[in-house]
Amino acid sequence: MTGTEILITVGAIAISWFVLHWLIKVLKVTVSTAIKIALIVFLLQIFFGIGPDRLWQQVQFLWLQVASYLPAPSLPSSQ
């Protein structure tokens, strides 16, 4: 192998390492968040009888309320 090929190989290994490390972090956070959401839904169901469908309706309602405070997008005028 020439010096250039060695540098390219080392660079590729370094980039692969960083991408793999980042992917593992993302997966850990994703799984952690999914478990927390599932726990909240489970506890609401057990203690208050609130099902996932009712909870989802409330989440949608809250997002609609937030969206109502945002300005409407303007379309470019065609002249």
Please provide a written account of the structure.
It is flat and about 65 Å long. The chain has 2 helices and no strands. The protein has 79 residues and is mostly helical. The model has no long low-confidence stretch (mean pLDDT 92). The chain has a domain at 12-62. 0% of the residues are buried. The N and C termini lie far apart (62 Å). It has helices spanning 3-48, 52-69.
Short description:
The protein is built from 2 helices and no strands. It is mainly α and 79 residues long.
Descriptors:
mainly alpha; single chain; 2 helices
Separation of the first and last Cα atoms: 62 Å
- Report the sheet-strand fraction: under 5%
The DSSP helix count reads 2
| Element-by-element helix/strand order | HH
Given helix and strand content, the structural type is mainly alpha
Using only C-alpha atoms, the radius of gyration works out to: 24 Å
Largest sheet: none
Tertiary shape: flat
Low-confidence parts: none
Number of distinct beta strands: 0
Instruction: Return the average pLDDT rounded to an integer.
Output: 92
Helix content: over 70%
